Amino acid sequence: MPNLGPTELIIIAVILVLLFGARKLPDTARAIGRSMRIFKSETAKLRDDDDTTVQQVAQPAATPQPAAPAPQQLAPAQPALSPEEQAKVLEEQAARLRAQASAQAGAQAGAQQDKH
Question: 116 is in which domain, residue-wise?
Answer without folding.
Answer: 83-116
